[in-house]
Amino acid sequence: MNGPGAASVASEPIIEVVDVVKVYRDGNIRALDGVSLTVARSEFVSITGPSGCGKSTLLNLLAALDQPTSGVVKVNGRDLRQVKDLSRYRREEVGLVFQLHNLLPQLSALANIEIAMPHSRGRSQSRAERARDLLAEMGLASAERRVPAQLSGGERQRVAIARALANDPGILLADEPTGSLDSASVDNFLQLLRRLRAEHGTTIVMVTHDNEVAAAADRTIEMSDGRVVMAHVS
After folding, report:
1. Does residue 123 carry a pLDDT above 90?
2. Residue 120 above 60 pLDDT?
3. Of 88, 115, 120, 163, which is most buried, counting CB atoms within 10 Å of its CB?
């Protein structure tokens, strides 16, 4: 696929969005207006643009939290409209990271990660071991018993990433993940994303309004008024 949103590297596409339109409120709000783009496997892509440009709507479609009014969204070669068990898709194929973390306040960091793992993964001890490994990878091995209120903003975001990675998803979707972080935590977070891509081959799609944060990705896709207006290699 050519055009402003086409992948810039010669690799198998893991995400394909074709002429997608999303309309709300009986057609009065056109959040997406003919968006087409591809994301290559193991690529790190940022989507940027002003508030209301449609970037978070697009991320919700990739996460199957919503459906397009028209057009096609394919992940791993499958049209998401044809996927019967979308809960399983979100549980096993994509990891979601949000600006406000969405951690359960009464649970420890370890338990917040464990709860994202289905019982089908194995014994509770195995889930705990996986959660501890993820916390260690995030540099939080000593924080497993702390609840979110006892963690800094950067630490909470790292727990949220660990939770998103609990079931080894191939795709990490992040919606304004640095909005609540200080500059040092932002740098650490972006280094972590690059390491995940380099060491695990994780495909990352990150929505951000911050051009400096967007520049950390391999490629930036700029949106305006529900359309892709530009794409460039960082």
Report:
1. no
2. no
3. 163
